[in-house]
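Figure 2 data, in text form.
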Amino acid sequence: MTDERFFSRVTLLKRLGWLALVGVVLLLSAFGLGEDALHPNELCAILGSIALAPGVVYLVIFTIWHWKSRYRGAHSDLWGALLLIETSGWFKLVYLFRHIIPDARGTGRYARGVANVS
């Protein structure tokens, strides 16, 4: 994966993250609204789910793309198995913070111009 492609994917992930945040707020408000509320609970839940879904799906796909092409670390087989087999998404969030964000910032093992430090 080239740097341009990687950074454009990170930018898209950030945008979808903001949309997902709006979706989470809508879902929380749907569960928090009472029966006598002005806004129907079902509409907030549906809109929240629609706003949240693209970010979740893209995060799952992007973590696998990153692991496949840019992973730098000593546990490639372990991460590959966790990312491909587990379905809850928690390991994808862990991978996001341990690998994708440092790669986007160019820090740690993903520092620009530094040889692979495994």
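Caption note: DSSP finds four helices and no strands in the chain.
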